[in-house]
TrEMBL record:
UniProt organism field: Pseudobythopirellula maris
Species classification: Bacteria, Pseudomonadati, Planctomycetota, Planctomycetia, Pirellulales
Reaction(s) catalysed by this chain's protein: UDP-alpha-D-glucose + 2 NAD(+) + H2O = UDP-alpha-D-glucuronate + 2 NADH + 3 H(+)
Pathway assignment: Nucleotide-sugar biosynthesis; UDP-alpha-D-glucuronate biosynthesis; UDP-alpha-D-glucuronate from UDP-alpha-D-glucose: step 1/1
Keyword field contains Chaperone: no
Top-rank taxon: Bacteria
Family classification: Belongs to the UDP-glucose/GDP-mannose dehydrogenase family.
Protein name in the entry: UDP-glucose 6-dehydrogenase
Top EC group: oxidoreductase
Active site: C261 (nucleophile)
Molecular function, one GO term: UDP-glucose 6-dehydrogenase activity
Binding site for substrate: F150, L151, K152, E153, K205, F250, L251, F252, P253, G254, G258, K322
Keywords of this entry: NAD, Oxidoreductase
């Protein structure tokens, strides 16, 4: 099939690349000339395992093209995917200005039988609005479908190629058939293709993210209580997870969820709820707990150092909002860094991928190290914010030698408290008893 994908952010680039990989003829379109020029040279604007190789291979074989020329890119496409950003607006709702601009830009150039598909996370009712806009702009009934994306950063290629399910929201069964055909190479393991109304599909995306965020806020609240009660949240997690009604996924406590999706989507769903005169009690609590959880490491540092951090040197492992990405949007690590700087502490940080992004934001306000062990030299404490694999099994004896004080605050529960005590560490983690 001939496909155009508008927007070469995370979702757009992965979608376009994976569809080209299954043999389609894909043109990725973006108004950012620098980005497109880079992509044409094989430069990938984000760090995502496996993406670069797949872009290069498909581009070389002529199935994947990049352009800033929207009319030319759209003209022959049977399916036009819209994957532009829908950032959080001032009132928490999604800002759709990029989406409206794209709809206006493509309208005059669409094939008569083109299907316009939204891949971006858009508020419920957006597909219907796009349908109305296209009707006005083209003078005909255009097919508009919703096809929300459930991929995770860091595992994007795998999630796209082996989805748990594909959801589409359509008005006509013929549109659903065409999209099912497009997805058939990815559904060979009998995973479901679920067709529903555009409103239900749009809602599905938000409900999925809000429920995952709810699980995280719930376990974080329980972890904080567990710690006060003298329990170990990891044991509790195991104790509940074996109940098949509960399971283990997304119940790891930590420093709060970050990233470009959960915070924004919970707030957008919240705004939708309010706009319909309903009370978003649960959504508000999920967001509030998460904001509070981002301070959990600061509170632990404050308690450990008796409220005086000035002149202390604090090492940080992990700046990205999660492992296997260089994304620092809404990253809990940056909230901690701001707090430490405000308190007059010096910060020295390591991250396998995110340093360039943090440097672009914070410049020389903190020190950066390419080597995780080098951050520890003379540091008063180590704080772990992201569960990169490289942090799971460090040389504890070397760490002990390097740190000025053997103090480790672990926001991801990577180590065993009893073993840390035996190694001579003062060790604080999330939802477990501290060892001093
Ligand atoms: C999330 C969803 O998982 C995807 O299904 C969805 O497609 C995507 O948003 C989106 O809407 O585009 P992502 O933001 O890439 O994906 O990352 P996740 O792996 O879901 O992690 C989000 C945050 O939750 C991270 O900060 C992570 O550290 C935190 N988390 C996750 C926990 O604190 N505990 C857990 O048990 C799981």
């Amino acid at each position: 099939m001939k496909i155009a994908v508008i927007g070469t952010g995370y979702v757009g680039l992965v979608t376009g690349t994976c569809f080209s990989n299954s043999g389609n003829d894909v043109t990725c379109i973006d108004i950012d000339e620098k980005k497109i020029a880079g992509l044409k040279q094989g430069e990938i604007p984000i760090y995502e395992p496996g993406l670069k190789e797949m872009v290069l291979r498909n581009a070389e074989e002529g199935r994947l093209k990049f352009t800033t020329d929207t009319p030319a890119g759209v003209r022959e496409a049977e399916i036009v995917y819209l994957a532009v950003g829908t950032p959080q607006g001032d009132d928490g709702s999604a800002d759709l200005s990029a989406m409206w601009a794209v709809v206006k830009a493509i309208a005059p150039h669409l094939r008569e039988d083109a299907i316009v598909v939204t891949k971006s996370t858009v508020p419920v009712g957006t597909n219907a609005t796009i349908y109305g806009m296209l009707q006005e702009l083209t003078g005909r009934d255009c097919d508009v479908a919703s096809n929300p994306e459930f991929l995770k950063e860091g595992a994007a290629i795998d999630d796209f190629m082996k989805p748990d399910r594909v959801v589409v929201g359509v008005r006509r069964p013929e549109v659903s058939d065409k999209l099912e055909q497009l997805y058939s190479p990815f559904l060979r393991t009998e995973k479901p293709f679920l067709s529903m109304s555009p409103e239900s599909a749009e809602m599905t995306k938000y409900v999925a993210n809000a429920l995952l965020a709810t699980k995280i806020s719930f376990i974080n609240e329980m972890a904080n209580l567990c710690e006060k009660m003298g329990g170990d949240i990891n044991d509790v997690r195991r104790g509940i997870g074996h109940d098949s009604r509960i399971g283990f996924a997304f119940l790891f406590p930590g420093v709060g969820y970050g990233g470009s999706c959960f915070p924004k989507d919970v707030r957008a769903l919240n705004a939708m709820t309010v706009s319909k005169g309903l009370e978003p009690t649960m959504l508000r609590a999920v967001d509030e707990i998460n904001e509070r959880q981002k301070s959990v490491m600061a509170n632990k540092l404050d308690a450990h150092f008796g409220g005086d951090l000035s002149g202390k040197r604090i090492a940080i492992w992990g700046l990205a909002f999660k492992p296997e990405t260089d994304d620092i949007r809404e990253a809990p690590a940056l909230v901690l860094v701001d707090w430490l700087l405000e308190k007059g502490a010096a910060v020295v940080a390591h991250d396998p991928e995110a340093i360039p992004n943090v440097r672009a934001e914070l410049g020389d306000k903190i020190e950066y190290s390419e080597r995780r062990m080098a951050t520890l030299d003379g540091a008063d404490a180590l704080c772990i914010l992201t569960d990169w694999k490289a942090y799971h099994q460090p040389d504890f004896a070397e760490m002990y030698q390097l740190l000025k004080e053997p103090v480790v605050l672990d926001g991801r529960n990577l180590y065993d408290p009893a073993r840390m005590a035996a190694r001579g560490y003062c060790y604080h983690s999330i939802g477990r008893v501290s060892v001093d």
